[in-house]
Amino acid sequence: MDKTILKKIAEDAASEALKTALSFLGNPQITSNNFKDIKTIADLKINETIISYLSTTDIPIISEEFESQLNEIPNLCWIIDPLDGTYNFSRNFPSAGISICLWENALPIIGIVKDIFNDITYDSFDGHGARRNGNEIKVSVISDLEDAILATGFPSGGSFETDDLLTFIRKIQIFKKIRSIGAASIMLCFVASGVFDIYYENDIYLWDVAAGLSLVKESGGEVFFRRKGNSLKYEVLASNMKIFSNSKSLLITS
Above pLDDT 90, what percent of the chain? Predict the structure, then answer.
């Protein structure tokens, strides 16, 4: 199927998923609350909406809600997070996204992110740039780490051991400001549009970042991502090209 058609299907899926998400706003119906994560009926229903569109393409789908697929990444597949920032959504903190990505040969080809609370659509297509509500976006031009805003977080699948946290804090002290808003897809959208300068997280799940990686790449930035073993946890860095090398030397684990 032509990728332009696939992008339109993904856009339609995201638009309909937004309607589903808004129907649960204020009442996400929490079904489990384990350690650093929660699950809701909203996640499941948004997922069902997206799947109903993407399944027409006959392309395999990897979703946060499909745990049986965790150890396999097909050469061509959809990677989706129906509700990135579930806890934010449950508390009406306005940072949550619907993330849909077409992944081909280990690279993000199409990225769609819906900023749920603000009705903003970010989209990207390999070789065709990135847009925010139809308007072209570009990464920042900040060239020094001391002037840069780093967007990061503490993913539910990551380590919360004291030594690991202290090591991370020492690495990030150089940056001008640190921002953590609890939704990787939205933070990557902000890097793609020049609001933030760098995004970095370790042990983040691929579905949280796949679409956002496409957006940063297509808005003139550079990305690094490395799979952690056989899981779908990744170490991820994205920034403008001026500070990418220095960011990578500082942040990426050996």
Answer: 82
